[in-house]
From TrEMBL:
Key words, A-Z: DNA-binding, Repressor, Transcription, Transcription regulation
Keyword Transcription regulation: yes
Species for this entry: Amycolatopsis oliviviridis
Source organism, top-level taxon: Bacteria
One Pfam entry name: Peripla_BP_3
Residue ranges annotated for the Transcriptional regulator LacI/GalR-like sensor domain, each copy included: 126-287
Name of the protein described by the UniProt record: LacI family transcriptional regulator
Family annotation (InterPro entries): LacI/GalR-like_sensor, Peripla_BP_I
Annotated transmembrane regions: none
Source taxonomy: Bacteria, Bacillati, Actinomycetota, Actinomycetes, Pseudonocardiales
Gene behind the chain: lacI
Amino acid sequence: MTALSPALPLWEDTPVTHRFGVAMAMHANPYSGELVRAIRRAARRHGCEITLADTGDSVAEEAAVIRALRADRVDGVLLVPAAGDEAVINGLVRMGVPTVLVDRMAGRNDVDQVGSENIQAVCALVRHLAGLRHRKIGFISGEEDMATYEERALGYRLGLGRSGLRWTSQLVACGQSTPGGAAAATAKLLDSWPSPTALVVASEAMMIGVQYEAHRLGIRIGRDLAIVGYGDMEWAGQVTPAVTTMAQPIEEIGRKAVELLLARITDPERRPESVRLAPRFIHRQSCGC
C-alpha cells in the first residue's frame, strides 16, 4: 500500500479549513524540497493542512498515490505530474476532483496549472549568448514527452531565429532529464561537427552532467565553452565559475498553486487557468562575460 506522510500541522488551535494532498517526486528535481516548503507556507496562511505523497516520478506509483489520497478524503490535489502522465490527470478531471498541476505544466486547458514561463526565458538565454558573438549555440534538451521541455526547446529555436542563427539538429542532443543523460549528450555534441562554443541546458539536473563532462574533458567553462541553464540549483553560485541561469520563482509557484486550488474548491465551475510565472535571470561567470 502506498504510504502517505502525515498531514503537516498548523499552529496549535488554528482551525483547519481544508486538507490538500500534494503528490510529487521528492527527489526528481533539486528544488523539490523548496517547493514543498513553499506550498506548506502558503497552505498554512490559508488555514489548510497538506498530506505529502511521493510519486517516485512514476506514472504507476502516481496512480497509486492519488488513489490513496482520495481514500484519505483530501479536499483537493496539488500534482507534479510524472513524465508521460495522461491517464491520472484525465481521471482527476473526469471525477471532478479539485486539482492543480504544479511546476510541470501539460498541454491542455481543462485543469488548473501553474509553473514557470519557459519559451521566452530560454529565448532570452540564447540571445544572451548570441550577444556575446556565439554562432554555434548547442542545446541539451529534456524528456521529449513533457510539455515543459517542449516549450524550452521551442524557446531555443525562437532565440536562434531572433538572433539571425539557423537551427540545426547537429547542435541539439537529448539529455533525458538526468545527469548521466546530459553528460552523454554533452560528449556527443562536443565530439561532433560543428562543435558548439556555447550550451543552453534545459534543467538543473542536467546541468550537473554537463559540468561533469566538461571537467572530464578538460574544457574550461566560461573560457573554452560558455554554459547557461534553466533553474537555479543550490550549488550554482558556489562552483567556479558560477552558473548563469534562469531561476524559477518557486515561492510564487507554491503560493499560486494553493490559491488556484482554493479558488477551484470555492467555484467548481470556474474556467481553468494556466499561470506561467516569469523566472529571474541571474548573470554569473559561466557564460564567459
